[in-house]
Amino acid sequence: MRFLDPTNDYAFRKIFGNEKNKEILISFLNHILARHGEGLIVEVELLNPYQAPHLEGAKETILDVRCRDQKGHEYIVEMQVLKKKFFDKRVLYYASKAYSCQLGQGEDYENLRPVIFLGILNFNFTEDSHWISTHRICNPDSKEHKIKDFDFTFIELPKFVKKEEELSSVSDKWVYFLKCAKNLEAVPGVIWEEAIKEAFAIVNQVTWSQQQLDTYERRKMALMDESATIAASFDDGKAAGKEEGKAEERKTIAKALLQNGCDVTLAHRTTNISIEELEALHRELAGSKTH
User: Rounded to an integer, what distance in angstroms lies between the CA atom of residue 117 and that of residue 99?
Assistant: First the structure.
């Protein structure tokens, strides 16, 4: 059995943005966002991921998954493989756009509902050592949380290092699925939750048509092309950034390339990281297949 990579944007939308499988998205949100009691999500309405600009010439956005729960709270779920400049500003832009689009002309502010951004990142973004962190607008001194309509939660996949036998919660199992499914040959025995089993079934390669596999591969190649473009932009602006930061960015790109099937030689030409370093990184990534 071979599983495709859930972090591929086409596969990700197939898992979490499918009208027929909304229970998968509900399970994911409830466990990752620790929803329970009155906060439990029991129903979601999938929304159009295309955010049209309000004004002519303004920026349009296409989100991975966008939905609304039974209370009207809106969720943006984004899978981000490559680390891009100004990612923090993009997050704020997505959330504020979703918030402002809730009101039509003449409608009252009381109709506005919270927006929750959930980002699954294949790179380190925060200083927090834990793999998941939530950020809110609070008073820095008293920690008072008065402005409550924005929540930002980030899953940083490189920080998740648990092995199969260490998975102790459903949220652990969901993140293990996202990070490790592509390296597994069977559904781990510790996973008995129906929603996660269904997610595994969705990324089982044998269930995909040739047309779907072609789309999946095109998205995979597009990611490699984007990685190369980002690497080239570093070369064009050497005087603008610090070498240490560039090295970290190149390593992030190299990891993405190797994880998506790129060979060491091409990764070397794209990132200018030495063959020896890339081979060591490749061995490190290969070693994680057993986790």
Answer: 11
Residues 6+ apart with CB under 8 A from 212: 10, 14
Q: How far is the C-alpha of 21 from the C-alpha of 29, rounded, in Å?
A: 13
Q: Which residue from 153, 9, 6, 4 is spatially nearest to 80, judged by alpha carbons?
A: 9
Q: Which residue has the tokens 């929304």?
A: 47
Nearest CA to 185 among 199, 155, 205? 205
What pLDDT score does 63 carry?
77
Q: Are 156 and 125 in contact (CB under 8 A)?
A: yes
DSSP assignments along 247-274, one per residue: HHHHHHHHHHHHHTT--HHHHHHHH---
What's the rounded mean pLDDT across residues 58-85? 85
pLDDT digits (tens, 9 = 90+) for 234-256: 555 554 455 556 677 778 788 87
